[in-house]
Fold this protein.
Amino acid sequence: MKNFEQTFEQAAANNVNSKSIHWFPGHMMKTLRLMAREIKNVDVVLVLLDARIPYSSQNPEIEEIIKNKPKIYILNKRDLADSSITDQWIKYFKSKGMGALAINSKTGKNNKLIKNQINRELKELLEYRQNRGIDGARIRVMMVGIPNVGKSTFINSFAGTQRAKARDRPGVTRGKQWITVDNFDLLDMPGVLWRKFENQNVAANLAFIGSIKDEILDIETLAVSLIDQLKKIYPDILPQRYKLSEDDMLLDNYDILCRIARKRGMLLPGGVENTERAAVMLCDEFRSSKLGKISLERPAEYE
Ligand SMILES: Nc1nc2c(ncn2[C@@H]2O[C@H](COP(=O)(O)OP(=O)(O)OP(=O)(O)O)[C@@H](O)[C@H]2O)c(=O)[nH]1
Ligand SMILES: [Mg+2]
């Protein structure tokens, strides 16, 4: 079984050898350049993070581009994360003087909260404009974040209609798109990953939540890493969901995947466990919160 480092090295090699498999695709490079250009034209940046991995979903290259702008961190997909840990993350961001909110973009119930937060963040600018008689000036908002975090979905719920294309896979938005809602101009952007992962945990977390295309990953390696993580931070989840015994849980992680395959009747001719199918199922069940509301990172680890 390959480890994560090997998987990513393989992905990088594929990037060189194949036209169709792209690790850090050209459109992400273009997006970083576009962001650097457009940052001058916006008033505030909404940084969408995934509530399950608020640390790993902060892209340092994006942070560098937006560092001098007012910004609000939005922990999206809060419905999939452990709510008590999300509350801890919000406190963590606030203790660092950063505006932060946790939301579920699929509901559209957050608009008032977000407008208030933007108004608070831009208080001085809005007062300045009012004093100069430029009341009613539009507020320009740039959306940034990793692929698949929900930027386009957020815009659609903010607008109350389907204005930006949003799908359940990374790499959907390919160019910039301005969308006007009341006195706001929202700039939708493609998601951006890292050029190079220094930290394999970050890479694994991004893969678990579906921000990296599964096609460039070894899904069994991914599932084995996920089993490893879940065993450490939510030890009851796998035994409960897949009816694994205490002895099963003492097996090594790959053998646990075999047990999961067997328990779900995923067998190849000859009775061998179909670990690939089990791996796809495990990742899907994690992503769709069938395993429960799971937070893979806690702020205490990053104090
Ligand atoms: N459960 C849940 N799903 C969400 C939420 N926000 C977005 N999604 C889902 O996440 C998936 C990705 O959403 P998009 O809006 O396309 O993500 P994006 O950030 O625009 O992605 P790219 O354009 O590829 O960078 C879609 O299936 C959405 O329905 C949320 O708050 N909760
Ligand atoms: Mg999008």
User: Anything to note?
Assistant: Residues 76-77, 79-80, 104-106, 145, 147-153, 166-168, 170-173, 190-191 surround guanosine-5'-triphosphate (ligand 1) (CB under 6 Å). The chain has two domains: 25-188, 200-302. The longest helix spans residues 219-233. The mean pLDDT is 91.
